[in-house]
Design brief:
Two copies of one chain form a homodimer. Chain A is of the alpha/beta class and 511 residues long. Chain A has helices spanning 3-14, 21-34, 47-54, 58-71, 85-98, 113-116, 143-156, 171-185, 200-210, 226-234, 253-256, 280-293, 348-361, 367-378, 381-408, 434-443, 478-500; strands at 74-77, 80-83, 194-197, 217-222, 238-245, 248-249, 263-266, 296-300, 325-330, 342-345, 412-415, 422-427, 449-450, 468-472. In chain A, the strands form three sheets. Chain A has an eight-stranded mixed β-sheet with strand order 3-10-9-8-7-4-5-6, sandwiched between helices. In chain A, strands 11-12-14-13 form a four-stranded antiparallel β-sheet, covered by helices on one side. At the A-B interface, helix 4, helix 5, helix 6, helix 7 and helix 8 of A face helix 4, helix 5, helix 6, helix 7 and helix 9 of B.
Chain lengths: 511, 511
């Protein structure tokens, strides 16, 4: 057997891989064993000789032989290296079955249908800067304090706490969260109803899979939160978008005649993306509707900690004892996103079944992080941090609203500014196209999601009244806001000018 | 207030729950507070008196009062326990707003069908001690070193790293993992194919949902890993159990005539639970089969780092370029379970689509933990820890095997001891019933899963040849093993004696 020829032929076929030499030799010999060129029982040439023949370092050859031995293709005896019996037999049988397997790549199988359904909203949330929504003022987070708490938690751990943790989360954290929610959000719960998750996306996933079956219907706000849409579609649910107006999700008589939902997803404290606050009247009506339909409401209270004007509305969950509500919260906004800790509060009757389900499927551990967070809550540091952030965000909001009114008041109005970390800028001039403007802004380095990109109604949506931009402000220093709004306003005014110019757009060069 | 009457009425309404007494009393009092029967400011009767009145142990009453205090429904003062103001206010207000909501509980809606499918294997993995499988020697983990690395990682973070992280995981960790897998497992990959997950359960979830649709078929080893079964059923897949023999999963001609699988789940390095090592011949045949059927193999390589005898077999993923394999690994066994970091290696063509899907749905963050782990790998500490654990586990295995042979050699044989952290003790006497023996052992405080409890074939399984116990040994000090095996052997021999005694069991008192 001419090894040099063998290797040369193989290299020609596989040059595109750019493999290191040892890998190339290993692959080459393996292919030769598989296709029978090197038959069972064949003694491979000695490593030193092959190295000389191929002009390779001996270690390169040794490495390739060792790999083959690891994989069972060759065996070593005192005199050297021999092609194994089993491997060659299989190779002979196998190569018939799969053809030229050396070159047969994985059939480029797309994702499953349900995974393809996960639409990604442009402008990912992992960006920072103006006006990415949902990102808190990370530079104001008390890192040094957090590190100390974390280190203290780690020091207190025994070996048993390195093991799989409680299926619902650390009891200390669940109690701290229950206490916080009762006191600040009017949630009626005890620690046994609280489940720790990796964040809102995990909570949504869990709700969709634990409380609805493939093909069940879920109602979601339209426009609405893309992450929820992704979770529901991924879980095989039939998604129905319900229009949102200035008072939140607006059920009509029409919706009652359709299929009963298993789940109803809402963001009542500060609607995502338009910022409406769901009125008490509608909250109670929604609870009544859910009871009548045997549905569960998913109350995503993500922005509730930041209420800028007026008294806070307490959570829907607490409006009635045993309300049919799955209450979702997260520390991604109040602490920081990379923490990956959120929670889910379920009605008492569902806590047992959910715990049983999670025993098999949950991500159970991260004890130190949970204990440090419990400590952060108990010590009052969390409340202190929240107060500081509320003050800061309110300040930033005030500056942003004033600036938007000054520079864009004529063709847009501010909506949903009373709470949260973002507001909606709604165009009052219908000829403006928010998606086009959002794309232009992205070119300028300004992230401003188009409200129309958050449609959830499916393939034939009615023209939404929500034509405008979603502007996150929590992370933007007040002194930068006016400058950013001027840049944003320039793009919007340009688009408005173009729209007014008899339907045809002027080329940018002339302006 | 007649507490006896109150409790009797409540028990009548809730008899079907089968709650323990303390829970029943707790629920009863809570309901009474919520519906106003026990108004704000009401002083509860003293625990001793109530215990006497209801003929309960005083501890039962104390427990119920403590739970109520935890939940904020009552407060303690020097003289005893009083119904809290806030709790009752909410209850009163709430009941006006929504009608007679005090009694309208959430309709006791069971979990969704797919969630009910998640069967839990008795003897949860969060236990420690003999012979819980899958738990490493946590007391040998270098905690102080890990704390230092973690703290160093935290100190190096800027505010931007508190934000949502990379959808596939931290690049540094993905590179470190790819390097480790190439060198020690023969996996053909680069960092772009590696995705960080929260552990094997997350990886399985992701595979089931990204690469199969509701109703698709998955092949799984029988007996097999309950966590995988749960993930697949939870994702709506049609599960088909394929028998396992001493050489791993054993496909027959019969299986080729059935529905083509979308996924094939195997644990080739050390089959869970019986410990077989999949032969090279079968590995190649399985790859050929997957290619022919357009299926993806999920190779769960969970126990591969601990090979006690003979040369390691390299991963299936590396047996052929672009093998149709999703390779799963975890740090739960090599580091510690509470870490919650695992990984998934996908074929090159699938990395892009999966990243796009994860952009919306992944748990993205935990940067410090990932960087600390990358550091642990790069610095060589991981390899060092692995070497130490390999030596330790091998020692423990040797002691266990010797002890089992001495005390149970006559009626059982050891299987699957060449790798991993557990072995299978297979009963050679067919009259022994592993499930009964496992239950008896549990009463004795010894966790030894019955092999028959890991059946995956569905509702009409053939009588499995795997009748025996799964014994994890990684966390048991060598000097304790013989004593534990003696206790275990006593139970097994007793069962064998009973089985031989003409089919009827002697009452324990006579033995």
């Amino acid at each position: 057997l001419d090894y040099a020829l063998l290797v040369a032929a193989f290299m020609q076929d596989h040059a595109q891989h750019g493999w290191p030499r040892q890998r190339m030799l290993h692959e080459c010999l393996r292919a030769a064993i598989r296709n029978g060129t090197l038959a069972a029982g064949t003694r491979l040439v000695a490593t030193r000789a092959l190295a000389a023949e191929l002009d390779l370092a001996r270690n390169t050859v040794l490495y390739a032989y060792e790999q083959l031995a690891c994989e069972g293709f060759v065996v070593s005896d005192r005199r050297g290296t021999v092609v194994a019996g089993a491997a060659a037999d299989v190779a002979a049988g196998g190569s018939d079955a799969v053809g030229d397997s050396g070159t047969a790549a994985v059939p480029v199988r797309a994702l499953a249908r349900r995974a393809r359904n996960l639409r990604v909203v442009p402008g990912p949330a992992d960006m920072m800067g103006a006006f990415v929504p949902g990102v808190p003022a990370l530079d104001m987070f008390p890192m040094a304090l957090w590190r100390r708490l974390l280190d203290r938690a780690w020091r207190g751990l025994g070996p048993a706490q390195l093991n799989y943790g409680d299926q619902a989360g650390e009891p200390a954290l669940r109690q701290a969260i229950a206490g916080h929610l009762r006191a600040s959000r009017g949630v009626l719960c005890d620690a046994s109803q609280v489940f720790i998750t990796d964040g809102t996306q995990s909570s949504l996933d869990l709700c969709a899979r634990a409380f609805a079956d493939n093909g069940d219907t879920v109602w979601i706000e339209d426009p609405g939160y893309a992450g929820a849409l992704a979770a529901f579609r991924g879980a095989g649910l039939r998604v129905e978008g319900i229009p949102v107006d200035g008072q939140g999700i607006a059920l009509t008589a029409q919706h009652s005649r359709r299929r009963k939902p298993a789940l109803i997803y809402v963001t009542p404290s500060h609607q995502y993306p338009v910022g409406s606050v769901l009125t008490l009247e509608r909250r109670l009506a929604l609870i009544a509707r859910a009871r009548a339909d045997g549905a569960l409401i998913i109350e995503d209270d993500y922005d509730s900690e930041f209420r800028h004007d007026g008294p806070p509305l307490s959570a829907m969950q607490g409006l009635a004892p045993d309300a049919p509500v799955l209450y979702l919260g997260t520390f991604s906004k109040t602490m920081f996103p990379a923490l990956r800790i959120g929670f889910l509060v379920v009605p008492t009757g569902l806590a047992g079944p959910l715990a049983a389900m999670r025993a098999q499927s949950a991500s159970r551990g991260r004890v130190a992080e949970q204990l440090a967070l419990a400590d952060f809550l108990h010590s009052g540091q969390f409340a202190l941090h929240l107060r500081r952030m509320r003050r800061l965000y309110r300040q930033r909001r005030d500056v942003l609203v004033a600036s938007l009114q000054e520079h864009l008041g004529a063709i847009a109005e501010v909506h949903g500014e009373s709470a949260g970390m973002h507001l909606a800028l709604r165009f009052t001039d219908d000829r403006l196209r928010d998606a086009e403007i959002s794309a232009r802004l992205m070119e300028e380095g300004i992230v401003a999601h188009a409200l129309s990109a958050h449609g959830t109604a499916g393939s034939r949506p009615a023209r939404s009244k929500w034509n405008g931009l979603m502007l996150g402000y929590a992370q933007i220093p007040a002194e930068l806001i006016d400058g950013l709004v001027r840049r944003l306003a320039a793009v919007v005014h340009l688009a408005a000018y173009a729209a007014r110019s008899a339907g045809h757009r002027l080329p940018p060069a002339r302006l």
